[in-house]
Amino acid sequence: MGVLIKTDRLILREYRETDFEGVHIYSKDPETVKFMLWGPNTPEDTHNFIQLAIAQQSIETRVNYHFVVTLRETGQIIGGCGIHLRRPEHRGAEIGYCFNQQFWGQGYATEATGALLKFGFKDLGLHRIIATCDPHNLGSERVMQKNGLRKEAHFVEELWQGKFNEWRDSLLYAILESEWLKI
Hints:
183 residues, alpha+beta, 8 strands, single chain, eight-stranded mixed β-sheet, Aminopeptidase
């Protein structure tokens, strides 16, 4: 069945072929993905991502965990999140998330991020987890702060944002296992 993470209101589960419609609803929306390096997705983009996420589930030494975020009561897909082991030899990883804009401001990203941190530290035995966001993405920055991540850096013109033909800054937040245990 794969990895399944439950919170009070959400279920984070690994992708299935049947997730296309729910995922494509938010991944094709320009407003939802305006701070992402990808998107808005074409149907082919969404299909290819789901296929990649499914293929990575069977890799023996996993470094990528992609999750569909669903409402626990209804099973409706409201977003996606994941954790990527960037430096496995140093027990480090990066988390990320994207939610349908219809579900912004309701605490779902904060709840899912808390679940990812718990999975990373307790189940994967990580030492350090980072997350990044565009400085204009105040909602994402707030999600990181609410989960105890601390701002470590502001990188100027770090990322080329091809869909807008411009360079973008990036904020780096991080948390150590020892810090997480005190929350």
